[in-house]
Amino acid sequence: MAAFRGKCPVRRAAPNRNPTVNWALHKADLREDFNNHCGYCDSYDGYAHTYFEVDHFVPKDLIVKNRWPITLVQYSNLVYACKFCNNNKLANWPSNSYTVFHIGNKGFIDPCNKKYSTHFYRRNNGEIMWNTRLGKWMYFNAFKFDERNPGIKLLWNLNRLRKALDKLYEARKKNIKTSKKFKSIQAEINKISAQYYPAHTKLMEYYRNL
Ligand SMILES: [Zn+2]
């Protein structure tokens, strides 16, 4: 069993932009605050396997329809999300109120709430699983992680390799080229790179064919 996500995202109190209409102008800040990961499935955005978008946690259609007193550009209601999470979630909302995120075991937890990750876990191969009844509801009814796990597994594997390579590149910098240590680090880099590039191709092929 592995942890569901690396870091819990934290929304900044004062965003750099102050749009009145176009919430997409918050995307750069959100991207940073969500550490380049989808708030819901924790996919990394650096592989260009899909688009990353600005999601309204309380759905925008409901805000408009019910005239709820939050604006569509309100930063605290925005989530950096991959296209799949955003499309699956849509106007799915369990309550008649913008302040009630879940009723019993149906509904959502804001991904910037530390508790979000307690509702899920990962198998060692990266597959997302649910941990609680509310997690189960989000899993099947909102984000459809069951259908998406083949791609999520590929992303997880690639992430694992990318992080290992990043660590090795850092370690390599600290050693002189002629040293034994440098050569052993380089050998490890070569070994992992040989796995990384085919894993990247596999990921891109999978998402291209979806
Ligand atoms: Zn996602």
Keywords:
single chain; 210 residues; mainly alpha; two-stranded antiparallel sheet; 42% helix; 10% strand; binds zinc ion
Uncertain parts: none
**Average pLDDT over all residues:** 96
Percentage of helical residues?
40-55%
Give the distinct bound molecules: zinc ion
Number of strands: 6
The spatial strand order of the largest sheet comes to 1-2
Shape: globular
Architecture overview:
By secondary structure, the chain is mostly helical. It has two domains: 23-148, no CATH class; 149-208. The protein contains six helices and six strands. It has helices at 27-33, 60-66, 83-89, 133-142, 145-173, 180-208, and strands spanning 52-56, 78-82, 102-103, 106-107, 120-122, 128-130. Strands 1-2 form a two-stranded antiparallel ribbon. A two-stranded antiparallel sheet has the order 3-4. A two-stranded antiparallel sheet has the order 5-6. A hairpin with a 5-residue loop joins strand 5 and strand 6. Helix 5 (145-173) runs antiparallel to helix 6 (180-208). The model has no long low-confidence stretch (mean pLDDT 96). Bound molecules: zinc ion. Residues 38, 40-41, 43, 81-82, 84-85 line the site of zinc ion.
